[in-house]
């Protein structure tokens, strides 16, 4: 199935995104087009603006759909991943947090589908980094037997760390997310000791789970993401493994280098 021709939908219905989402209803269980659109907007999908069709045309001129399709096929072959529908839409150009955090691009991965939201400013390498990160999520969700509804905090941060390590591996250090360098080693030690370790088994449906993962309110910014990336880097360094080899590993196995240590000296 792969890349869905969302460019054709945008051509005719850019200013009616809920109508566009009528085409997506079949991929969701018991959700209306309006509910789907509101959910996608929460994760970075565009909201119509007067000059929006120009944005869309720029994406076409930049061959965004072709670039992502080619990279997807390469990733699918390398990771022996599933063939899933991939939906590409403009990102929310008014979302300043999105611009600052990830060059105006974002994604939303499910076990059986993938959404990518891209900016007209995104380079080819940035697009490759995006599909790499998000499709790695898809492969992790399908290759590791644990059901996503049963994920706990440790599983989530490992999921994010794996995906960004795949970007480092395939696209290069200059294209990993800015958040990967937010904290020094001693700061990560405190994040592990004070936040991650005590809450490592907190369900993904628990409020504190999201607070830690994204660093909301008074929590360190993107703390879960940063700690997940650090865990993966330590495991890769210790065991010389690849992204593909880690896709089906237990979270506890990957984090064992820290879990084996005394709680008060978690990074020794």
UniProtKB/TrEMBL annotation:
UniProt-listed GO biological process terms? proteolysis
- Domain of life assignment: Bacteria
Q: Which InterPro entries match?
A: DUF2268
Q: Cite a single GO MF annotation.
A: peptidase activity
Q: Which UniProt keywords apply?
A: Hydrolase, Protease
Indicate the segments forming the DUF2268 domain, all copies. Answer: 64-255
The molecule here is called Zn-dependent protease
User: Native species of this protein?
Assistant: Oceanobacillus bengalensis
């Amino acid at each position: 199935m792969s890349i869905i021709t969302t460019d054709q939908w945008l051509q005719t219905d850019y200013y009616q995104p809920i109508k566009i989402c009528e085409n997506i209803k079949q991929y969701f269980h018991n959700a209306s087009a309006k509910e789907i659109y509101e959910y996608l907007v929460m994760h970075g999908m565009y909201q119509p603006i007067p000059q929006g069709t120009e944005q869309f045309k720029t994406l076409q001129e930049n061959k965004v759909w072709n670039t992502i399709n080619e990279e997807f096929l390469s990733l699918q072959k390398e990771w022996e991943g599933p063939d899933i529908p991939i939906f590409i839409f403009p990102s929310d150009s008014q979302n300043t947090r999105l611009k600052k955090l990830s060059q105006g691009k974002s994604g939303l991965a499910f076990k059986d589908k993938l959404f990518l939201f891209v900016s007209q400013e995104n380079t080819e390498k940035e697009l490759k980094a995006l599909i790499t990160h998000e499709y790695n999520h898809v492969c992790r969700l399908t290759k590791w037997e644990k059901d996503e509804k049963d994920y706990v905090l440790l599983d989530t941060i490992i999921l994010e760390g794996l995906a960004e390590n795949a970007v480092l591996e395939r696209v290069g250090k200059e294209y990993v997310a800015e958040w990967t360098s937010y904290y020094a080693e001693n700061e990560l030690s405190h994040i592990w000791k004070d936040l991650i370790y005590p809450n490592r088994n907190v369900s993904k449906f628990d409020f504190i789970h999201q607070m830690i993962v994204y660093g909301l309110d008074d929590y360190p910014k993107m703390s879960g993401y940063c700690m997940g990336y650090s865990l993966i880097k330590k495991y890769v360094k210790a065991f010389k493994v690849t992204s593909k080899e880690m896709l089906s590993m237990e979270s506890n196995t990957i984090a064992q280098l820290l879990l084996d240590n005394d709680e008060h000296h978690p990074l020794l």
